[in-house]
Amino acid sequence: MILLDLLKLFVDQDTKLIPLQLSKIIRHCNTVSFWHKGSETVAGAFGRQALPMCWDYPEYNPLSPFAGGLQDSLDDFAEAAKQISVSSLSVGQVHNADATETPLPDGSVSVWFTDPPYYDAIAYADLSDFFLVWLKRVMRDQSLLCDIFDPATGFRPRKERLYRTPGGCRAGFLKIKCFYETVMARSFAEGKRILNTDGIGCIVFAHKTTEGWEALLTGIINGGLIVTSSWPIATERGARLLAR
User: Fold this and answer.
1) Cβ proximity of 116 and 162 under 8 Å
2) Are 206 and 121 in contact (CB under 8 A)?
3) What domains can be seen in the chain, in order of their start residue?
4) What residues in the chain have per-residue pLDDT under 50?
5) At what angle do helices 124-138 and 19-28 cross, to 10 degrees?
6) Rounded to an integer, what distance in angstroms lies between the CA atom of residue 10 and that of residue 214?
7) Beta 195-203 vs 109-114: how paired, if at all?
């Protein structure tokens, strides 16, 4: 009830709780968070890119000074804003578009860098809805809090999202292996189109199975790209990979 009362206070006073701050708070204030013995505090629900089952959970006080608390979340947000503020010194453009239909002209870029969906490893839309239902309560008039390709859904993209669903189907949308490979190939072909003749593309991908890697490579080949080299990289901070 503390979180609900806190949220109601911000809404009633016609103020806006910083979205990133709220997202960090609710990451700890939920029924799938757990007690972390090492730091003697409540660990957030997303130790990995999934929401695992939790048989019991500690009730977190959002007014506490620890990670996930109101002040700690605000401090983290302020520090991040400070570090990225230097970006205002450079000029850039951001487009919200389908990866298979970018607004860039042919041969217009020297570097094409992409981090595509990891086959069936992460259900991005489902996980983002965990935060979306809360953000909509404090950002009622924000038009970006919906599927830009299908606004009527009220949630994150489902129909066109590039994700191979277990069993092949979810919410009436077929997401079998060939769907992933076909759309991935279209995305890679689009990347090839906007690259200039001396350009280079970089693809970041992670998966534990040969099936996932095969699907990625099929998309690369069918998209007309040629793999010239590969590098193994570690992308996760050790403290995030918490054991329950």
Assistant:
1) yes
2) yes
3) 2-87 (no CATH), 96-122+163-228 (3.40.50.150)
4) 1, 12-15, 170-171, 242-244
5) 120
6) 49
7) parallel
Identity of residue 196: N
Q: What is the dihedral of CA 145, 147, 148, 152, to 10 degrees?
A: -100
Angle at CA 212, nearest 5°, toward 206 and 217? 90
Give per-residue pLDDT as tens, 166-217.
655 544 555 677 888 888 899 999 999 999 988 999 999 988 889 889 988 9
In angstroms, how far is CA 40 from the centroid of its own chain? Answer: 28
Tokens 């991040």 belong to which residue? 80
Instruction: Give the torsion through C-alpha atoms of 127, 117, 143, 158, to 10 deg.
Output: -70
Cα separation, 219 vs 242, whole angstroms: 33
Query: Angle of helix 70-84 relative to helix 19-28, nearest 10 degrees?
Result: 140
pTM: 0.72
Give the single-character DSSP code of 104: P
CA distance 91 to 217: 34
CB of 49 within 8 A of CB of 122? yes
Q: Please list, in sequence order, all residues whose beta carbon lies within 8 angstroms of the beta carbon of residue 49, skipping any fewer than 6 positions away.
A: 121, 122, 127
* Cβ atoms of residues 145 and 139 within 8 Å: yes
